[in-house]
Amino acid sequence: MNHHLRGRLLAPLSVAAAATAALTALVPAGAASAAAKDTTKPKASFTAPAVNAIVGSKVTTTISASDNKKVTKAQLYVAGKLAGTRTAAPWSLTPSLAGKNGTVKLEWRVYDAAGNKTVVTRTVVADNTKPKASFSAPAVNALVGSKTATTVAVSDNTKVVKAQLYVAGTLVGTRTAAPWSLTPNLAGKNGSVPLEWRVYDAAGNSAAVTRTVIVDSTAPTVSITGGLDSDGYLSGPQTITVDASDDRALKYVEIIVNGQVVARDTTAPYTATIDASKYGKIIYSARATDTAGNIRTTADGTANGELLAPPPVDAPAFSAPTAGEPTLVSCTTNGEWRTVKYEITLTGGAYSMGSAPRKDYGWNNGSATYTQTATTAWKVGSSYQPKVLLLPVMVADPGSTSPEHSVYGGVQFAIDSTTCQPLADF
Ligand SMILES: [Ca+2]
Ligand SMILES: [Ca+2]
Ligand SMILES: [Ca+2]
After folding, report:
1. Where would I find the beta strands (DSSP E) of 219-267?
2. Whether pTM exceeds 0.85
3. Of 48, 119, 215, 289, which residue is 20 to 30 A from 280 by alpha carbon distance?
4. Per residue in 332-347, pLDDT tens?
5. How far is the CA of 203 from the centre of ligand 2 (A)?
6. Which listed ligand is nearest to 143 at the C-alpha?
């Protein structure tokens, strides 16, 4: 009975024990066998951010990860501290870098189911410091015109990448590199106008500076109140008188004769006196400039100077010099004016007059052959631009001492007002 019982009891126990032993042997052996089949580490590489990218308080970092079996976990360490864990794709996290400046190491640790680990690292440059910005120009409350450059001085611990200018709250321009300067159009604005520069660094941190300027975009008024007599041929001193005013501050008034500024007055009365004896066609105007740089110019006035006067009919006979071929010295542009200068060689028959005004024209003082420089100017595109310009070279009566009546002969030749070249026939 006992034997039988023991035999019956022992038998199952032995089986159970054997099974237990077998299980004990099989379970770890089976697990170890499965792990042993995957000794291959995952593959991982950085997708973002770029190496040494400049980043702000938040950076999205992404890796591509794969495994011969399966990637089961990826952990992100920022500057050595665990910042997040992913257990499935996408293998991407956006850790906070708030307060950090300078180089920061990002490290992803990628695992497969068997515990194989692959580590990839990348450094970025954290920038959580705002740029510095200060107005360089214009000055506080400067009186400025409709076109005025404004400049901001910038610096940053990494790099300034953008500066935007706002005028009265409206974006008017963007710079992405030095010089950090723009010239906004302030036309139509008058009075106090706020300017604001917003400056951005590579990480997107920004700083703003503002400045108020006083805009004057209204040009002065200007008129010629005393012009030149347009009848006949003027000689001697002739005075042009101008009136001008501005809504804010007049800087100066200029009087322009044949393209040249002959007077610049900062205080009224605004006048210029010219010697009409030195002129042929006289084209004159006045130009007023305010302190903001706005300019207004009058219409042209015209008069005839003495050089255009025909020779006196009672001039004594004299032998005119022989003129050589004219030679172009220069043809220059001064604003809307063109000035052409020719040289011409005269042989015989020319005489000096000995009178001061005539000497200004380069009179020869008695030699038989000399070279005379002749100059004329015209306004391009105006009604005073003839196709053919006559360039007179005056010769004088040897016996006369009167400037008004001595010029009775001359040599003249024609030039094309477009090409400045002499014309063979005119
Ligand atoms: Ca693996
Ligand atoms: Ca910065
Ligand atoms: Ca003004």
Report:
1. 221-226, 237-245, 250-257, 260-265
2. no
3. 289
4. 887 778 787 777 776 7
5. 7
6. 3
